[in-house]
Protein backbone atom coordinates (compact mmCIF):
# COMPACT_ATOMS: atom_id res chain seq x y z
CA UNK A 1 0.00 0.00 0.00
CA UNK A 2 1.34 3.43 -1.00
CA UNK A 3 1.52 5.65 2.09
CA UNK A 4 2.86 8.68 0.20
CA UNK A 5 0.42 11.41 -0.82
CA UNK A 6 0.41 12.62 -4.40
CA UNK A 7 0.52 16.34 -5.23
CA UNK A 8 -3.21 16.19 -6.01
CA UNK A 9 -4.00 14.67 -2.61
CA UNK A 10 -2.04 17.19 -0.54
CA UNK A 11 -4.16 20.17 0.28
CA UNK A 12 -2.61 23.55 1.10
CA UNK A 13 -4.33 23.82 4.48
CA UNK A 14 -2.93 20.44 5.47
CA UNK A 15 0.58 21.48 4.48
CA UNK A 16 0.37 24.46 6.81
CA UNK A 17 -0.63 22.40 9.84
CA UNK A 18 0.84 18.93 9.37
CA UNK A 19 4.46 18.54 10.50
CA UNK A 20 4.76 15.26 8.57
CA UNK A 21 5.59 17.22 5.43
CA UNK A 22 8.36 19.31 7.00
CA UNK A 23 11.98 18.48 6.16
CA UNK A 24 14.05 18.95 9.35
CA UNK A 25 17.39 19.17 7.53
CA UNK A 26 16.09 21.88 5.21
CA UNK A 27 14.63 23.79 8.16
CA UNK A 28 17.98 23.67 9.98
CA UNK A 29 19.80 24.85 6.84
CA UNK A 30 17.44 27.81 6.47
CA UNK A 31 17.89 28.56 10.17
CA UNK A 32 21.64 28.81 9.58
CA UNK A 33 21.12 31.38 6.81
CA UNK A 34 18.77 33.43 8.99
CA UNK A 35 21.47 33.81 11.66
CA UNK A 36 23.41 36.19 9.41
CA UNK A 37 22.35 39.84 9.68
CA UNK A 38 24.01 43.29 9.80
CA UNK A 39 25.05 42.66 13.40
CA UNK A 40 26.47 39.22 12.53
CA UNK A 41 27.84 39.37 8.95
CA UNK A 42 30.22 36.49 9.60
CA UNK A 43 30.28 33.64 12.10
CA UNK A 44 32.29 30.59 13.09
CA UNK A 45 31.04 27.01 13.17
CA UNK A 46 31.04 27.12 16.97
CA UNK A 47 28.95 30.30 17.04
CA UNK A 48 26.41 28.81 14.64
CA UNK A 49 26.26 25.57 16.60
CA UNK A 50 25.70 27.45 19.86
CA UNK A 51 22.97 29.68 18.45
CA UNK A 52 21.06 26.72 16.99
CA UNK A 53 21.83 24.42 19.93
CA UNK A 54 23.47 21.86 17.68
CA UNK A 55 26.61 19.83 18.19
CA UNK A 56 29.60 21.08 16.23
CA UNK A 57 29.57 18.10 13.86
CA UNK A 58 25.95 18.70 12.80
CA UNK A 59 26.62 22.40 12.35
CA UNK A 60 29.65 21.65 10.20
CA UNK A 61 27.64 19.37 7.88
CA UNK A 62 24.98 22.05 7.41
CA UNK A 63 27.60 24.72 6.73
CA UNK A 64 29.54 22.47 4.35
CA UNK A 65 26.37 21.73 2.37
CA UNK A 66 25.37 25.40 2.18
CA UNK A 67 28.89 26.33 1.08
CA UNK A 68 28.86 23.59 -1.57
CA UNK A 69 25.52 24.91 -2.91
CA UNK A 70 26.76 28.51 -3.07
CA UNK A 71 24.76 29.94 -0.17
CA UNK A 72 27.71 30.39 2.22
CA UNK A 73 31.35 31.23 1.60
CA UNK A 74 34.40 30.76 3.77
CA UNK A 75 36.01 34.08 4.69
CA UNK A 76 38.92 32.72 6.70
CA UNK A 77 40.04 29.54 8.41
CA UNK A 78 37.24 29.99 10.95
CA UNK A 79 34.48 32.29 9.68
CA UNK A 80 31.68 32.03 7.11
CA UNK A 81 29.39 34.61 5.47
CA UNK A 82 26.42 34.64 3.09
CA UNK A 83 27.41 34.11 -0.52
CA UNK A 84 26.05 35.63 -3.72
CA UNK A 85 23.45 32.92 -4.35
CA UNK A 86 21.46 34.05 -1.30
CA UNK A 87 21.62 37.63 -2.56
CA UNK A 88 20.59 36.57 -6.06
CA UNK A 89 17.43 35.00 -4.67
CA UNK A 90 16.65 38.16 -2.75
CA UNK A 91 17.44 40.44 -5.69
CA UNK A 92 15.17 38.45 -7.99
CA UNK A 93 12.27 38.69 -5.55
CA UNK A 94 12.76 42.38 -4.71
CA UNK A 95 13.17 43.39 -8.36
CA UNK A 96 9.64 42.16 -9.05
CA UNK A 97 8.09 44.45 -6.43
CA UNK A 98 7.10 48.04 -7.13
CA UNK A 99 8.53 50.93 -5.14
CA UNK A 100 5.19 51.42 -3.41
CA UNK A 101 4.97 47.75 -2.45
CA UNK A 102 8.45 47.87 -0.95
CA UNK A 103 7.80 51.17 0.81
CA UNK A 104 4.39 50.38 2.35
CA UNK A 105 5.56 48.39 5.44
CA UNK A 106 8.49 50.78 6.03
CA UNK A 107 6.19 53.80 5.89
CA UNK A 108 3.65 52.15 8.19
CA UNK A 109 6.34 51.33 10.76
CA UNK A 110 7.68 54.89 10.58
CA UNK A 111 4.23 56.33 11.20
CA UNK A 112 3.79 54.02 14.18
CA UNK A 113 6.98 55.46 15.68
CA UNK A 114 6.53 59.18 14.95
CA UNK A 115 2.69 59.38 14.85
CA UNK A 116 2.70 62.01 12.07
CA UNK A 117 2.03 61.93 8.32
CA UNK A 118 4.47 59.95 6.16
CA UNK A 119 5.04 60.49 2.43
CA UNK A 120 6.90 58.92 -0.47
CA UNK A 121 7.88 61.12 -3.42
CA UNK A 122 9.69 60.88 -6.73
CA UNK A 123 11.18 63.47 -9.08
CA UNK A 124 9.42 64.15 -12.38
CA UNK A 125 11.10 66.85 -14.44
CA UNK A 126 11.16 69.91 -12.17
CA UNK A 127 8.37 68.63 -9.92
CA UNK A 128 8.14 66.47 -6.84
CA UNK A 129 5.28 63.96 -7.18
CA UNK A 130 3.77 62.27 -4.13
CA UNK A 131 3.17 58.58 -4.87
CA UNK A 132 2.18 57.38 -1.39
CA UNK A 133 0.83 59.10 1.73
CA UNK A 134 -0.11 57.89 5.19
CA UNK A 135 -2.15 60.18 7.40
CA UNK A 136 -0.96 61.07 10.89
CA UNK A 137 -2.29 59.18 13.90
CA UNK A 138 -3.38 62.44 15.54
CA UNK A 139 -6.07 65.00 14.81
CA UNK A 140 -4.20 66.66 11.95
CA UNK A 141 -5.17 65.56 8.44
CA UNK A 142 -2.71 66.15 5.60
CA UNK A 143 -4.16 67.65 2.43
CA UNK A 144 -1.56 65.87 0.30
CA UNK A 145 -2.93 63.31 -2.14
CA UNK A 146 -1.30 60.74 -4.39
CA UNK A 147 -0.33 62.66 -7.51
CA UNK A 148 0.12 66.02 -5.76
CA UNK A 149 2.93 68.01 -7.38
CA UNK A 150 5.25 70.52 -5.73
CA UNK A 151 8.05 72.57 -7.34
CA UNK A 152 11.27 70.66 -6.70
CA UNK A 153 13.47 73.75 -6.39
CA UNK A 154 11.42 75.10 -3.48
CA UNK A 155 11.15 71.97 -1.31
CA UNK A 156 13.62 69.96 0.74
CA UNK A 157 12.25 66.82 -0.92
CA UNK A 158 13.05 68.12 -4.37
CA UNK A 159 16.40 69.57 -3.38
CA UNK A 160 17.53 66.19 -2.01
CA UNK A 161 16.75 64.49 -5.32
CA UNK A 162 18.12 67.25 -7.53
CA UNK A 163 21.34 67.37 -5.49
CA UNK A 164 22.19 63.80 -6.55
CA UNK A 165 21.97 64.66 -10.25
CA UNK A 166 24.88 66.02 -12.24
CA UNK A 167 25.08 69.79 -12.71
CA UNK A 168 24.52 69.31 -16.44
CA UNK A 169 21.34 67.30 -15.86
CA UNK A 170 19.97 69.93 -13.48
CA UNK A 171 20.72 72.63 -16.05
CA UNK A 172 18.91 70.63 -18.73
CA UNK A 173 15.85 70.19 -16.54
CA UNK A 174 15.69 73.92 -15.85
CA UNK A 175 16.68 75.08 -19.32
CA UNK A 176 13.30 76.68 -20.11
CA UNK A 177 12.06 76.96 -16.52
CA UNK A 178 10.43 80.30 -15.65
CA UNK A 179 8.34 79.63 -12.55
CA UNK A 180 10.80 80.60 -9.80
CA UNK A 181 8.11 81.07 -7.18
CA UNK A 182 9.40 82.19 -3.78
CA UNK A 183 7.92 80.64 -0.63
CA UNK A 184 10.46 81.82 1.94
CA UNK A 185 13.94 83.31 2.20
CA UNK A 186 15.25 79.74 1.68
CA UNK A 187 13.71 79.40 -1.81
CA UNK A 188 16.21 79.62 -4.70
CA UNK A 189 15.11 82.39 -7.09
CA UNK A 190 17.25 81.38 -10.06
CA UNK A 191 19.18 78.47 -11.52
CA UNK A 192 22.38 79.92 -10.11
CA UNK A 193 20.91 80.03 -6.59
CA UNK A 194 19.48 76.53 -6.99
CA UNK A 195 22.86 75.09 -8.01
CA UNK A 196 24.47 76.79 -5.02
CA UNK A 197 21.82 75.31 -2.73
CA UNK A 198 22.31 71.84 -4.21
CA UNK A 199 26.04 72.06 -3.55
CA UNK A 200 25.29 72.86 0.09
CA UNK A 201 22.94 69.91 0.65
CA UNK A 202 24.44 67.24 -1.63
CA UNK A 203 25.96 65.11 1.13
CA UNK A 204 23.31 65.72 3.78
CA UNK A 205 21.58 62.58 5.12
CA UNK A 206 18.35 64.56 5.63
CA UNK A 207 16.88 68.04 5.25
CA UNK A 208 14.47 69.92 7.49
CA UNK A 209 11.89 72.45 6.39
CA UNK A 210 10.65 74.56 9.28
CA UNK A 211 7.95 76.61 7.58
CA UNK A 212 10.10 77.15 4.49
CA UNK A 213 7.51 75.89 1.98
CA UNK A 214 4.24 75.84 3.90
CA UNK A 215 4.64 78.48 6.58
CA UNK A 216 2.80 76.58 9.30
CA UNK A 217 4.23 73.13 8.52
CA UNK A 218 7.40 71.25 9.43
CA UNK A 219 8.86 68.53 7.19
CA UNK A 220 11.84 66.18 7.30
CA UNK A 221 13.04 64.29 4.24
CA UNK A 222 15.71 61.65 3.55
CA UNK A 223 16.79 60.08 0.24
CA UNK A 224 16.13 56.49 -0.80
CA UNK A 225 18.94 54.93 -2.86
CA UNK A 226 19.09 52.16 -5.45
CA UNK A 227 21.61 49.61 -4.18
CA UNK A 228 22.77 48.72 -7.69
CA UNK A 229 23.80 52.16 -8.95
CA UNK A 230 23.42 54.37 -5.85
CA UNK A 231 21.00 56.72 -7.62
CA UNK A 232 18.29 58.39 -5.56
CA UNK A 233 15.00 56.79 -6.59
CA UNK A 234 12.68 58.50 -4.10
CA UNK A 235 12.49 60.49 -0.89
CA UNK A 236 10.68 59.44 2.25
CA UNK A 237 9.43 62.30 4.40
CA UNK A 238 7.21 63.23 7.33
CA UNK A 239 5.19 66.37 7.95
CA UNK A 240 3.16 67.96 10.71
CA UNK A 241 2.10 71.39 11.98
CA UNK A 242 5.03 73.32 13.46
CA UNK A 243 3.29 73.27 16.84
CA UNK A 244 3.52 69.46 17.05
CA UNK A 245 7.21 69.30 18.02
CA UNK A 246 9.95 71.67 19.03
CA UNK A 247 12.41 72.37 16.24
CA UNK A 248 15.12 70.70 18.32
CA UNK A 249 13.13 67.48 18.73
CA UNK A 250 12.10 67.49 15.08
CA UNK A 251 15.69 67.92 13.91
CA UNK A 252 16.87 65.26 16.35
CA UNK A 253 14.76 62.21 17.15
CA UNK A 254 12.25 62.63 14.32
CA UNK A 255 14.98 63.19 11.73
CA UNK A 256 16.82 60.07 12.90
CA UNK A 257 13.65 58.00 12.50
CA UNK A 258 13.20 59.28 8.95
CA UNK A 259 16.83 58.55 8.07
CA UNK A 260 16.47 55.05 9.52
CA UNK A 261 13.35 54.41 7.44
CA UNK A 262 15.03 55.71 4.26
CA UNK A 263 18.06 53.50 4.92
CA UNK A 264 15.80 50.51 5.54
CA UNK A 265 13.86 51.08 2.32
CA UNK A 266 17.08 51.63 0.36
CA UNK A 267 18.16 48.13 1.40
CA UNK A 268 15.25 46.70 -0.61
CA UNK A 269 15.83 48.62 -3.86
CA UNK A 270 17.62 46.62 -6.55
CA UNK A 271 16.37 47.95 -9.87
CA UNK A 272 18.59 47.81 -12.93
CA UNK A 273 16.64 50.61 -14.65
CA UNK A 274 16.31 53.08 -11.74
Short note summarizing the structure:
The protein has helices spanning 12-17, 24-34, 45-52, 56-68, 84-95, 99-114, 156-163, 167-173, 191-201, 247-266, and strands at residues 43-44, 72-74, 79-82, 117-124, 127-134, 149-151, 207-210, 217-225, 232-241.
How would you characterize the overall build of this protein?
- The protein is α+β, with helices and mostly antiparallel strands.
- It has 2 domains: 12-93, Winged helix-like DNA-binding domain superfamily/Winged helix DNA-binding domain (Arc Repressor Mutant, subunit A), CATH 1.10.10.10; 97-266, Beta-Lactamase (2-Layer Sandwich).
- The protein is built from 10 helices and 9 strands.
- It has helices at 12-17, 24-34, 45-52, 56-68, 84-95, 99-114, 156-163, 167-173, 191-201, 247-266, and strands at 43-44, 72-74, 79-82, 117-124, 127-134, 149-151, 207-210, 217-225, 232-241.
- The strands form 2 sheets. A 6-stranded antiparallel beta sheet has the order 6-5-4-9-8-7, with helices on both faces.
- Strand 7 (207-210) and strand 8 form a beta hairpin.
- Helix 3 (45-52) packs across helix 4 and helix 6 runs antiparallel to helix 10 (247-266).
- The longest helix is centred in the last third of the chain and has 20 residues, at 247-266.
- The radius of gyration is 24 Å and the shape is elongated.
- It starts with 11 loop residues before the first helix and ends in an 8-residue tail after the last helix.
- Residues 1-10 have low confidence and may be disordered.
Amino acid sequence: MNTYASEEQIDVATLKTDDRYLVPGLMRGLAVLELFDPAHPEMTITEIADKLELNRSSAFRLIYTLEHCGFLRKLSQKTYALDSRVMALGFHSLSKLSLNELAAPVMKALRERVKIAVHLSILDGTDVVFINNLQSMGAFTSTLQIGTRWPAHATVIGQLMLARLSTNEVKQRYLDFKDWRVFSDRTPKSLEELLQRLDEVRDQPFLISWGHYNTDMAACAAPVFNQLNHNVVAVISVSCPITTYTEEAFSGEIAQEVVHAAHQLSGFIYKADS
